[in-house]
C-alpha cells in the first residue's frame, strides 16, 4: 500500500497561539510604551493616558492620541501581528515589527477596543474594532469586521468625533496590572515615560497621565532647563568617543552610526545638597542608557564593559543608534529587550575603557572631597560613633593626659569657630542651634572624642592627638586601611559598618589615652601604631593579589 497523503496543517494552533501570546512577557509599563510609540509614529502631538478602576473593581487603561489615525479598511490589519499601515513601510519609525498593539492587548487585557478617525478619510465617525481573547479562541482567531461606533459613555475622553483625526485604545480589563493600585500604576507610568520618551517630550510632544502633563526626565543631567539641571547643575562631558560607522548598513547615501557619550554628574552639588536619594544615585542607575531613534530602550547598564561599583555612581552614558542598526543591537519585538552584537560590544569597550578608568578615579576623589566639605558644614553635629563613644567615656578609665594651657586655648578657639558656624546654619531652628552650641561648650569641660579624616604624612592608619580635653582621632586617607576598608563602608552608604569601624579605632585611641601619663607605655604605643600600620598595609596588599588571581 502506498503511503497516505499528508493533509495540509496550519503552522499554528489558534487557541494555543493565543494562550502563548498572553505569556509574551510584556509588562504593563512595556505595553504603555509600545502604545505611545504607535502614537508618535502616527505624528501625534499629544497623548493622553488614563488608568482607573471601573464600578466592578477592574483596572482599565486608556491611551488616546491626536495622530493621523487609522483608515477604516486598515483597522483589522493594525490589530494583527505584523500589521503595519501603508506608506509607513520602509520609514524609520519607532515601531519595528507591527507587534506593539496586538502583543500589548494579548498580554495585558482580556478585551481591547480600538477606535480611530483617520485624516486620510472624509468620515466624522469612529472606526471600531476589538481584540477579545475569548472570542478569538472560539472563532479560529479571526478578528471581527470593522464598523462605526461611538466612544463608550462610561469613560471621560480627551478626543471626540469632532476632531479631524485621532486614535483611542481601551484595555477594559487589565488581567495582570504591574501595580495593584491605580495610584501606584499611574505613578510608575509617569516615571517610566518621563525617562523613556524624554527626547520626544523635549521636542514639544506632550504626554498626560491622569490629568498630569509629564516633564522630560534628564537622567544624564545634560539639558539646560531640565529640573535635574536646575537643581544640580549640568553634568560634564567626559572624553571624546569617536562614533562607530556602518556604511554597509545605510541607504540613500546615509551612514548609520553608533554614538557614545559619557557624562560625569555634578558631584559637588549632589553631595553637598544631599540629593543622592532624590536623583537615585547608585549602582542601579550608573552606566549606559541605550537610545534607539530618540526612544530609550534600557538604562543603567554595564554591558559587561565595567564592574558596577560605587566609584561609578556619578557616571551615566548614552549609546544612541538608528533602527537601521537594529540587527547589531539584537532588538526584539519587545523593544526593551536586546542582545548586543559581541563584536560591536568589544568595539565600544575598546573606545571607552580607558575613559571609564580615569572617570572612576576622578569620581572617587571629587566625591570624597565634597563629602568632607559637607561634613565640615554640619558644625555642631556628631557622628553616630562620636555620640556612642562620648556617652561611654565617663564609665571608662579616665584620661592619662593632663592638658597644657596651649592645648586648652587651641581647643577653645576651635569650639568658638564651630559655634559661629552653627549660628550661620540656615537648616537649623533656633532651638536646635542652642542645643548644639551647649554641646560644643561642654567639650571644654569634659573628655570627648572627635573624629577626623585627613591625609597624614606619618604613614600610620590612624593618629591620636590631644587638644585640651578633646581626643582627636584622625583616620589617614593615604593608608590602605582607608582605601580598602573604611572608604568602602562610606561608598556603600553603610553607616552601621562605618560606625563600627570608627569605634574600633576609637578603642585603640582610648587605650593609648588612658596610659598617656606613663612615658614608657606612651612610647610603646607610638612604636606599635607604626608597626600595626606597616603590617596592615602588607596584609592588604597581599589580599589584593589574592583577589586579582581569582
Percentage beta strand = 15-25%
The name of the CATH topology of the largest domain is Heat Shock Protein 90
Helix fraction, binned, reads: 40-55%
Strand order of the largest sheet: 5-4-3-6-2-1-7-8
Per DSSP E runs of 2 or more residues, the count of β-strands stands at: 17
Describe this structure in words.
The chain is of the alpha+beta class and 550 residues long. The chain folds into three domains: 200 residues, 2-Layer Sandwich (Heat Shock Protein 90), CATH 3.30.565.10; 141 residues, Ribosomal Protein S5, domain 2 (2-Layer Sandwich); 122 residues, no CATH class. Helices cover 40% and strands 17% of the residues. It has 17 helices and 17 strands. An eight-stranded mixed β-sheet has the order 5-4-3-6-2-1-7-8. Strands 9, 10, 11, 12, 13 and 14 form a six-stranded mixed β-sheet that branches. 33% of the residues are buried.
List keywords for this structure.
550 residues; alpha+beta; Heat Shock Protein 90; Ribosomal Protein S5, domain 2; 3 domains; eight-stranded mixed β-sheet; 17 helices; 17 strands; 40% helix; 17% strand
Topology:
Blueprint: H1 14-22, H2 28-41, E1 46-53, E2 59-65, H3 75-79, H4 100-108, E3 111-117, E4 127-132, H5 133-138, E5 147-148, E6 166-171, H6 182-196, H7 198-202, E7 206-209, E8 212-213, H8 227-232, E9 236-237, E10 244-245, E11 257-264, H9 267-272, E12 287-292, E13 295-301, E14 315-321, H10 326-329, H11 342-377, H12 384-392, H13 405-424, H14 430-442, E15 448-454, E16 462-467, E17 470-476, H15 480-491, H16 495-514, H17 519-549
Parallel strand pairs: 1-7, 12-14, 15-17
Antiparallel strand pairs: 1-2, 2-6, 3-4, 3-6, 4-5, 7-8, 9-11, 10-11, 11-14, 12-13, 16-17
Helix pairs in contact: 1-4, 2-4, 12-16, 13-14
